[in-house]
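User: Show me an example of a complex going from sequences to structure tokens.

Assistant: Sure. Here are the input components:
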Amino acid sequence: RKEVEQDPGPFNVPEGATVAFNCTYSNSASQSFFWYRQDCRKEPKLLMSVYSSGNEDGRFTAQLNRASQYISLLIRDSKLSDSATYLCVVTVPSASKIIFGSGTRLSIRP
Amino acid sequence: NAGVTQTPKFQVLKTGQSMTLQCAQDMNHEYMSWYRQDPGMGLRLIHYSVGAGITDQGEVPNGYNVSRSTTEDFPLRLLSAAPSQTSVYFCASSYSRGQDTFGSGTRLTVV
């Protein structure tokens, strides 16, 4: 079983829709959590950190559920420019690990 | 402010050749890392550094060496290239683990 798992998608949704995806992690010692976006043939870029209290940045909301060991990303009023692969990242400082999920592909159609 | 600069962008090597991928950052970040990205596997950490003179192995270190003589530079050396090292390589830097700024990547093919 992978330490960090994501539904690979693709999620294909119309412009303006709300879309959400989850990322599950297996190590209960995981400490920090992040979402990145990666455009085709480009480098990953940090989208947002994920805090226990949840956090919002414009149309994006990230949440952490430690009890069930998953993080989520919600995108409201999706735009064509949101089409990308979204990677979740988990750090496990006690094991000096930083683990990337394989990514969820999102495609927004006009 | 260039961020993280990686060279070269593309490289083709023959099996057994060695080469160095260059990485430099101008943000005065203490953390620097090298990742490889293969289809369906996500990014995997090769080596990382928490400061000048300090390096450590990541998840897939075999076949690679690193050194960190300055805060700015973190080169990755492939000792004897193998086809299994065909991948996209990313260098990254950060002030805090997990909050990486990535370079634009090196596409390496080993034939």
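The lines above are the inputs; the final block is the predicted structure for all two components together. The longest strand of chain A covers residues 84-92.
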